[in-house]
Amino acid sequence: MRALPDPVQNLIDAFARLPGIGPKTASRLAFYLLKAPDESSLQLAEALDPVSYTHLTLPTIYPV
Q: Is domain 6-61 classified as CATH 1.20.1600.10?
């Protein structure tokens, strides 16, 4: 079996670390983004950036 390029495998691995996402779904998401217009990946990246833990913490969103 042919190995995937490292960036693609890294994307699959990143998706697979999300709760409820197994390896098959992670692969589907990664290949969807590879086939989708560049704008789709950019929108996802822009949506994730403001909620990263470097900018925002959970207690800020959901006060305990």
A: no
